[in-house]
Structures are given as structure tokens and as C-alpha cells.
Amino acid sequence: MVSLLLRMNSQSLRSMAMVVFAAMLWGTTGTAQSFAPPQLSSFWVGALRLVVAAAFFWPLVWMRNRSELTGPAMRDLPWSGIVLAAVCMCVYNLAFFAGVRHAGVAVGTALALGSGPLWAGLLQFGLRRALPKPMWWMGTGIAVAGVCVMATGKGTGAHATWSGVLLCLLAGLAYATYAIVNQRMVSHASPSIVTATVFTLAALLAVPGAAGLSGLPQFKVNDVAIVLWLGVVSTGIAFLFFSHALRHIPAATAVVLALAEPVTAYVLAIVVVGERPGVSGGLGLGAVLIGLWLVVRGESRLGNP
Prior knowledge:
Radius of gyration: 19 Å
Largest sheet: none
Shape: globular
Oligomer: single chain
Helix content: over 70%
Strand content: under 5%
Number of domains: 1
Structural class: mainly alpha
Distance between the termini: 18 Å
Order of helices and strands: HHHHHHHHHHHHHH
Number of strands: 0
């Protein structure tokens, strides 16, 4: 890893730091939600996070890309990709917050975030029709075993339900699809405009979805502060850093660095929330990280971008 860093230019190093920073902000999401009173539905937490993020993006876009907001520049945006990315982000937010509430912060976050790279590998295999190398299969097996240990181990501080597990896995799939689509779009268009447009459309989809699934929201003072943190910090700032970084570093490197996310979430779940994953939880998380590292290493040897 040290030799890899030495070979990279300053732009790549800055981009790597941006992904790590974004991943650490993402890692606060599950912990922040755990402080939301139960009367605010998980679906509304996810939907309102998108609304706040969209409102955060557009003033920045107006200041930095004002000339691109009218005429051909907007018409030439990759709208099919934007629609798909928005649907994925909507599904990710609704499924993630509901899944974490049913599975616990440590287990739920590990399932959603840890499964994302695995889903990405499977999606790439389906798109390219190329059989992964043995290292990919070995890493996948180790990571899946680790996820199973974390989901079924005792002493997690929360009883994971199968509905919570499935929702978190769905969130991981939606996020992986978003990441693949997003990387293709930001290589040809402004990351700020693409991100703002995707999150605006995602918010327009998520709000009626949350209303249909859980009715009208019921707010308290704590809810506003939590939603603002989730929308501005762990979504707005994080995804802007992530989208800009993808223009300068390969996807495999970004996936490795993004593993700071479940690590951050796991530590916060223990230190802040008070969950006690125990030995099995620690071993499971370690297996997930080792497995994902093997998957990414195998992908990087194939020369994937």
C-alpha cells in the first residue's frame, strides 16, 4: 500500500483523501439515526435526508457552475443514467434506514455497506460477461461468511430480523448500482450538477414513497437536528467529495478506501450508541474487511477502472 501511494501523483492522493473523508461521514449515518425518536418513521428519515441534501447542492452548483445550468448543457446531461441513479438512491435511503432500525446499527450498517462492493462485483460480472478470478471468489466467500456471523451472532445489542437483513442487502444493491452508474456519468459531465440533479429527482421519488409507506411525518426538535446532519454532512458533503474523487482515481481504489465507512460505523455503534457486538461481531467484521480486500485486489489485477 505504501509503494502504491508513492507512485501516485498529488491529484490522486487528494482524491484518495476525499474518498476516506466521505466514507467517514457516511459511517455516521446509522449512529445518527439511532438518536431519532421512534415516532419519526425510518422511511421519512431517508426521504428527508434526500430533500435536505438536494437543497444543499443547488446553491453550490449555482455559485460554481452557473453557466451550465441553462440551455444545451442541461439537455445534454445523461438523463437515462440520472433517472436510474435517482431510483437507486431513493431505494437505498428508504431501505437502509428501515433496515438499520430493524437490524441494529452495527449489524445493519455492516450488511448494507459491506455488501455494496460484493454487489458491484456481481453487477460488473453480469455486464462484462467475464468470470472473476479465484481470488474474487475466495474474497466473496470470506466476506459472506463474515456477514452471516455478524447478522446471527449474539451480543449485538439488537436482535436482527430477517426483514431488516433483507432491507440492508437491498440497500447495498441499490448503492452498488448507483456507484457504477455515477462513475460513468461524472467522467463526462460536471460532478456537482450530476449529483444535484440525481438527489433532487431521488427526493421527489422518496417523499411520496415515505408518505405511502408510513403516512405523514411527526416531528420533534431532535428530529430536525438529526435530519439536518444526515442531509448536509453525511449526504451532501460526503457525496460531493465522492463524486469529484471518482474523476481521478480508479473505482477499485475508491472501494478499498470506502471501507473506512463500515469501520467508522462499527466504532461509533460501540462508543456512542452503546451496542456491544462482542467477539463474534468483531470477528465477523474482520472477515468482511478481509474478504472485501481480496475482492478488490483481484479486481485491480484485472485492470478494471
